[in-house]
Specification:
It is built from eleven helices and three strands. It has a three-stranded antiparallel β-sheet with strand order 1-3-2. It has 225 residues and is mainly alpha-helical. Helix 4 packs antiparallel against helix 10 (194-206) and helix 6 packs across helix 8 (160-172). Strand 2 and strand 3 form a beta hairpin.
Amino acid sequence: MIILDRNSSETARSYAMRVLLYNIIHVELQPGSAVSENELSSALSLSRTPIREALIELNRIGLVEILPQRGSYISKINYAIVEESRFVRLVMETAVIKLACESITDDYLLALKQNIEQQKACQTTKDGDRFLEIDNEFHRLIFECAGKMWSYHFVEEQMVHFDRLRALAAKSGYAKSTIPDHEDILYALKRKDAEMAEIFMTRHLTRYQTEKTEIMKQYPEYFTE
């Protein structure tokens, strides 16, 4: 498990939640694996109370299973939930990308170009975790330039299940199409061509279906039957 630094303004519960969420999304805590309140308490230098509260919250959003008399387990990846998360993101992002074509500035175009260069660097070093973070930043920039950050945070909250599949794709080398897709999206934004941008974004957010098949073959134990 990766231990993140605690922010000075962060409560114990918020810190425990952030660390657990990071490790679940990046599959450092593997689907189906047991989690111990005592071990987490020791690793994060926290009492068991904020750990328990974080696990209860993660149970509420379907990322942790709490079984009476048996303990807590990281939930396996439920493909039906992944598909719904992806659906929400597709609806929102295809709408936002068209708005971005109307409002994008040279500063945002430069930021997106620099972001793609960072993605290429992560691909070279095979840093899957960092690649996923920069990928998220690419999409955040599009929402920001369209003036839709509230919508971005809404989508972000719905994406935790889909993000585990994306993390596995990045770690396993299946996300090879991400950079070319982002370059195509940037091209459409430069041209301010909303129809083209929507087509490219739709293609980008549906590629996971092919990647999913390969990932499920490689990690069958991570998925619910």
